[in-house]
Amino acid sequence: MTKPPLLPEPDEGEAADERQFFAPQKARKLDKVPTLGGTAEAHYHGHRDRLRARYREQGDAALADYEILELILFRLIPRRDTKPIAKELLARFGTLAGVFGAPQHLLQEVKGVGESVALDLKLIATAAQRTLKSELRNKQVLSSWSAVIDYCHAAMAHETKEQFRILFLDKRNTLIADEVQQQGTIDHTPVYPREVVKRALELSATALILVHNHPSGDPTPSRADIEMTKLIAEAAKPLGITVHDHVIIGKDGHVSMKGLRLF
């Protein structure tokens, strides 16, 4: 029987950290390392098997954050010891959420992470965000407040620039649309009340939840945040549109301006 062909090795100039293929185990050549007696299988293959077995038998509670990240990186980087890369990612970005929320170009600054791996990490983050967003579908948003916060935190907490997001709701407070209205600098986003109201009318929305992030990490509202919220609420009210809240998202928490009675 003809042996299946091995896929070609990466070109010399190609980053060694990139995944080269996802062929079944039997069809790929295991890495070998030199020993006194010849060669032996690279040490991390046994480590990967043990880590997978621990996850399979004991669940995620048995694993540290870097080990969870290792399990993901196993599939993305088949020919490297991924423990140092996982630890370096967490050291750089602080948490798993920080890793998946980091911009692609910053992920690539970590040794061992190339373009394809960074892109795949962002793809996983996108899947997680859409999963959280799906929890809001066909539900009254105000009665699913924790799901709203979880989604907004996943989508915005680790952005390096301010974003102004609007959740448009119908008369049953069900989500119609979720849109990023504006994107600004690291500490400012220009928002125009007339554009917010115009878009609400286009979507036949009767209520809004305003959300923006503070890349500094501190969700405390600024004076400009408070004034802008009041202007939007005042412009929307005569048209029968209610601003339920303005939520500010930080890396480690959030603030509800309605809860603080700031408008």
TrEMBL record:
Gene3D superfamilies: 5' to 3' exonuclease, C-terminal subdomain (1.10.150.20), Cytidine Deaminase, domain 2 (3.40.140.10). InterPro entries: MPN (IPR037518), RadC_JAB (IPR025657), RuvA_2-like (IPR010994), UPF0758 (IPR001405), UPF0758_CS (IPR020891). PROSITE patterns: MPN (PS50249), UPF0758 (PS01302). Belongs to the UPF0758 family. NCBIfam families: PRK00024.1 (NF000642), radc (TIGR00608). This is DNA repair protein RadC. It comes from Sinorhizobium americanum. The gene is radC.
